[in-house]
Amino acid sequence: MKKISLLLLIALAGFMIKANAQDQKAESFTGATAHKKHYQAVYQLNNDDEKVIKATLKNINNALEDPRLKGKLEIELVVHGGGVAVFKKDKPYEQQLKDLQAKGVILAQCLNTMKERNISKEELFDFISFVPSGNGEIIIRQQEGWAVVHP
Amino acid sequence: MKKISLLLLIALAGFMIKANAQDQKAESFTGATAHKKHYQAVYQLNNDDEKVIKATLKNINNALEDPRLKGKLEIELVVHGGGVAVFKKDKPYEQQLKDLQAKGVILAQCLNTMKERNISKEELFDFISFVPSGNGEIIIRQQEGWAVVHP
Amino acid sequence: MKKISLLLLIALAGFMIKANAQDQKAESFTGATAHKKHYQAVYQLNNDDEKVIKATLKNINNALEDPRLKGKLEIELVVHGGGVAVFKKDKPYEQQLKDLQAKGVILAQCLNTMKERNISKEELFDFISFVPSGNGEIIIRQQEGWAVVHP
């Protein structure tokens, strides 16, 4: 009799665990499943609005931390136009940028923007890299198979 | 004599129909031709501006009704950041969203946004689905071959 | 002796040229390399803000002039929503548009926008082309392999 109760208990426990797992699955998402081993995305930042800059940096972090992409996502932040603000030494983004770089994020500044706005490399953080044009970079990356996100 | 007139008339009519068809073709567009059997696009909404929300919903409808894509286009609306407004019960978008859903549009809310903004699922329409991060969703979809539109 | 000096001079010159080339390479960029023979990108303009219109036209030029893409890049400018302003006869963009068209840029106006806003073709420059919907155009192009840029 005890044996049967134990078996019933185990069966019940098993049922509850399974039901719970299904609930979680139903709740978690009905979106995309990540089948690839490696993901690549270029983020475009062309706005000096503090809200947009902060949202962009946060969005990149959210993508990197997405359980479906964690450890599998390579990102490049391409900055052009007003977005150059994020790379300026007198702006407060140094630590956030270094944290992103430590996670493998490429930080790329458009050289055209610097010419057009008369900005010298000395005004920008010395750990960033440069591309001939931000727009060209965004196009080449996509044509190489990267996704694009414009927050 | 009558026979020849009739033949001429038929020929003339045929010529006119053809000329008219060519005019229409010349006028209609010089853009892309849809060769594929199935199209997929993810729409990004990350703005609480009423104009942007309305434009996004209208844009999705326009894409679904494009004669080149009608019946061949699958869409997912990915909402993150301020865009969460579109899914709030106290906002006036319920019917439009249900209409889109009836046309097969997936309605996906970013769970990160809800955590960051302390929004409970009870505040949102109960017919939407959830994704770990809106940014991850947009990236995975693109890397699976979906187009991306950010209105 | 003269011969040796000459050889040394040549060697020195060669070394300096090479060192200089490496400097330039190191400085130029750490971004993407363009391996393809032909690149294609669709630009989305859906804003009547003069700044956004000007930035979009400049961005297209910057992409076309990017040394990595020069002579290899095909662009279509897809205009919908408020963006229709750029094609209006009473706006000052005629010459810039003609210059872009001369560089092969396709200028495409969304017909849905014109219906919704009651705009006649007579109000727009006569050298542009039309697409059933701007959103459909952007999706079809991407699904055909084009990159997308939304300035």
CATH class term of the largest domain in chain A? Alpha Beta
Write out the CATH superfamily name of the largest domain in chain A. DsrEFH-like
Determine the structural class of chain A based on helices, strands and strand pairing: alpha/beta
Q: Report the strand count of chain A.
A: 5
Strand content of chain A: 15-25%
Average pLDDT value of chain A?
A: 88
Please provide the ordered H/E string of secondary-structure elements of chain A.
Answer: HEHEHEHEHE
Instruction: Report the helical percentage of chain A.
Output: 40-55%
**Could you tell me the radius of gyration of chain A in angstroms?**
23 Å
Largest β sheet strand count, sense and barrel closure of chain A: 5 strands, parallel
CATH topology call of the largest domain in chain A = Hypothetical Protein Ychn, Chain: A
> Which blocks of ≥5 consecutive residues of chain A have pLDDT under 50?
17-28
Strand order of the largest sheet of chain A: 4-3-2-1-5
- Quaternary state of this entry equals homotrimer
Determine the N-to-C terminus distance of chain A.
Answer: 64 Å
Largest interface: A-B, 30 and 29 residues
Counting H and I runs of at least 4 residues, what is the number of helices of chain A? 5
| Domains of chain A (count) | 2
Protein name (chains A, B, C): DsrE family protein
Signal peptide (chains A, B, C): 1-21
Pfam families (chains A, B, C): DsrE
InterPro entries (chains A, B, C): DsrEFH-like (IPR027396), Sulphur_relay_DsrE/F-like (IPR003787)
